[in-house]
Amino acid sequence: MGNIELNIYCDEIKEETIKYMHVDNEKWIYIGILIVPVDKEEQLIRSLLNKRCGNPEAREWGKCERECSFHEKNDKEVHYKKLGTKDRYFIAERWLDFFMEDRELTWFYILGINLTNLNYDFFGNASGSERFLRIYNRFFRMAIQKSVKSYFSSYDTITINNLGQCIIKFA
């Protein structure tokens, strides 16, 4: 089918202890991957900026004839641990709705690893942060390979141009 170039953005939740039902203290880590074809990245960023605005008149971010009040109150960092204000919450909600409905600009993969069930012997005799890095790196590579091959298997060549943390600064 040809070639595709991808940018991959990743983030992780480091070891969380989860208690639920009849299970005590399971330790989990999560790896989240956002895969964006290079030729669609500008369109994706523009769409996310427009969703950030929140103006019911569906204006485009940065193209209002005069700066509307939505721009000022919604021009802030959005992080899942800092959703304390309703403005941040609604930005996150609009973005999640966008990602759930979009089928052309983004592909996601989330891998949860139950550390409680792992046999640590498979990761050598390291301990502490070195052991965590070995585990993380093994599963990170697997998550990248699995997601890229699953979503883009019809392409002859897949090129990953950027592989990094999710750090996108909006103008």
Automatic annotation (TrEMBL):
**What is the recorded name of this protein?**
DUF3800 domain-containing protein
